[in-house]
Design a protein that fits this description.
Layout: E1 4-9, H1 12-21, E2 28-32, H2 35-44, E3 47-52, E4 62-64, H3 72-90, E5 93-96, E6 99-102, E7 107-110, E8 113-116, H4 119-129, H5 137-143, H6 155-171, E9 178-180, E10 183-185
Parallel strand pairs: 1-2, 1-3, 3-4
Antiparallel strand pairs: 5-6, 6-7, 7-8, 9-10
């Protein structure tokens, strides 16, 4: 996991307290007292959380500490929860070609269009997209549907037909999932 950075923005007292405890914490503590430095820090750090005792608009990953005094253990727990939320959200997006798949909300997104997908549809797209070669129907039956490959069923074909139709209707794209003689592929 990447290093987590807690940026204390214009809150000197809190920075001084946390700076003394930094060796016992699982994140870096950074103090920033002006807006330009804050923008530079946010731009250059992967995982960061900005914390202040005043509300500031337009800051991403902002945590407002308004109730003081606070138990230090509860405070550290809140910070860790915020970092977990941030990590969860950052891992929820998968880019495939011009599309973004939001794994949390099960949506396929392109430009201004959003298509709601089922869990099986998400699993099918992600599985096919990870392969550099066409994925056979038997492999999809086994890996996505947990069927044995010797069972005669048209579940995969039917599912992909409907999925392709949904993508065509929403994004006007009939080239997203391509049928090959050995299976299906996303290029």
């Amino acid at each position: 996991m990447s290093v987590q950075n807690l940026i204390i923005y214009k809150f000197t007292t809190l920075y001084q307290i946390l700076d003394e405890l930094e060796s016992d914490l699982n994140f870096n503590i950074i103090f920033v007292d002006n807006e330009n430095s804050l923008k530079d820090k946010i731009k250059n750090l992967n995982y960061c959380l900005v914390l202040s005792n005043k509300k500031y608009s337009g800051i991403s990953n902002f945590f407002f500490l308004d109730k003081l005094p606070i138990n230090i253990f509860k405070f550290i727990e809140k910070i860790n929860i915020e970092f977990l939320k941030q990590q969860f959200n950052s891992q929820s997006e998968l880019r495939i070609n011009q599309y973004i798949i939001d794994l949390n909300s099960r949506e396929l997104i392109s430009s201004n269009s959003i298509l709601k997908l089922t869990e099986k549809e998400i699993n099918t797209i992600t599985y096919i997209s990870k392969s550099n070669k066409p994925v056979s129907i038997n492999e999809l039956q086994e890996k996505v549907w947990s069927y044995q490959s010797d069972i005669e069923t048209h579940t995969v074909e039917t599912h992909i037909y409907r999925l392709r139709k949904k993508i065509l209707n929403t994004f006007n794209d009939n080239e997203f999932i391509i049928s090959k003689k050995d299976g299906y592929q996303i290029k």
